[in-house]
Amino acid sequence: MAQMEGNTQPESASQQPYVFKVVLLGSSSVGKSSLAFRLIKNDFKEILPTLGCAFFTQMMEIDGSALKLEIWDTAGQEKYHSVCHLYFRGANAAVLVYDIADKDSFRRAQNWWKELENEFQPEEIVVILVGNKTDLEASREVTLEEGKAFAESKKLLFMETSAKLNYQVTEAFIAVARELLRREEENGG
Ligand code: GDP
């Protein structure tokens, strides 16, 4: 059973937590900051304050293992259709976000995937494709099947979310954390 533990050390996990760097990627306005804000503060703001920093930490406990996710937000760098190499450096996971009501953001997510492919070997990084804003179903431009098909073709995790309605946000990060742990254990962690 997975548990979210705010920013505090989970009591039951006595060992040092695993620390993983998770980068958020995707075009502007798809909801990257809102997803991070929802995960960390369990809140949603129509107009997000400038968060001032592009780095958050979130503790989790999964099946008795403590994890610390260091979540990096692009802080607007994606407007230039790229991010600096430092952003990628040492990343263990990427959350690749598009807006289900914006076909262009889905196309751009595929371009971001190519950037990831250039930077990492597949076994080096866990990637989840996230179709955000499911509350905008009436204006949907990317079907669930299209999202799934792309994710399957590239062997990515996949989830649709709504940061606004708090739909599957925690679940998406838990899926990433589980896969990170699974790989860590597979490698003798
Ligand atoms: P970022 O540029 O990718 O970090 O996107 P933001 O998190 O700043 O969000 C861009 C806009 O989309 C803001 O107006 C948010 O309020 C809105 N937004 C984010 N997530 C959702 C969602 O799940 N549903 C809806 N309807 N709007 C969202």
TrEMBL record:
SMART domains to which the protein is assigned, alphabetical: RAB, RAN, RAS, RHO
Catalytic activity reported: GTP + H2O = GDP + phosphate + H(+)
Protein's UniProt name: Ras-related protein Rab-17
Essential cofactor(s): Mg(2+)
Classification via CDD domains: Rab5_related
Major localization class: other
Designated gene of the protein: RAB17
InterPro entries on file: P-loop_NTPase, Rab_GTPases_membrane_traffic, Small_GTP-bd, Small_GTPase
Assigned keywords, A-Z: Cell projection, Endosome, GTP-binding, Hydrolase, Lipoprotein, Magnesium, Membrane, Metal-binding, Nucleotide-binding, Phosphoprotein, Prenylation, Protein transport, Transport
Family statement drawn from the similarity comment of this UniProt entry: Belongs to the small GTPase superfamily. Rab family.
Recorded GO CC terms: apical plasma membrane; basolateral plasma membrane; dendrite cytoplasm; endocytic vesicle; glutamatergic synapse; melanosome; neuronal cell body; postsynapse
MF annotations from Gene Ontology: G protein activity; GDP binding; GTP binding; metal ion binding
Gene3D superfamilies, A to Z: P-loop containing nucleotide triphosphate hydrolases
Species lineage: Eukaryota, Metazoa, Chordata, Craniata, Vertebrata
Keyword Magnesium (UniProt): yes
NCBIfam families xrefs: small_GTP (TIGR00231)
Organism (species): Vombatus ursinus (Common wombat)
Highest taxon listed in the record's lineage: Eukaryota
Subcellular location per the Swiss-Prot or TrEMBL entry: Cell projection, Dendrite; Melanosome; Recycling endosome membrane
GO annotation terms (biological process): anterograde dendritic transport; cilium assembly; endocytic recycling; filopodium assembly; immunoglobulin transcytosis in epithelial cells mediated by polymeric immunoglobulin receptor; melanosome transport; protein transport; regulation of dendrite development
EC number from the UniProt entry: 3.6.5.2
Keyword Secreted on entry: no
Membrane topology note: Lipid-anchor
Pfam families: Ras
